Amino acid sequence: MLVKDWMSEHVITLDENVSIMKAIQVLKEHKIRRIPVTREGKLVGIVTDRDIKEATPSKITTFEVHEMYYLLSELKLKDVMTKDPLTVKPDDTVEYAAVLMLENKISGLPVVTDDGQVVGIITQTDIFKLFVNITGIYYSPYQICLLINHSNELLELFQILKDFQVTVYSLLTWKEETALPTEGESKTSSSEENKRIVFVRLEEMGQEKLETLLQELNKKFRVLYHLKEDISKLPRKEIKNKEESFI
Question: Domain for residue 218, yes or no?
Answer without folding.
Answer: yes
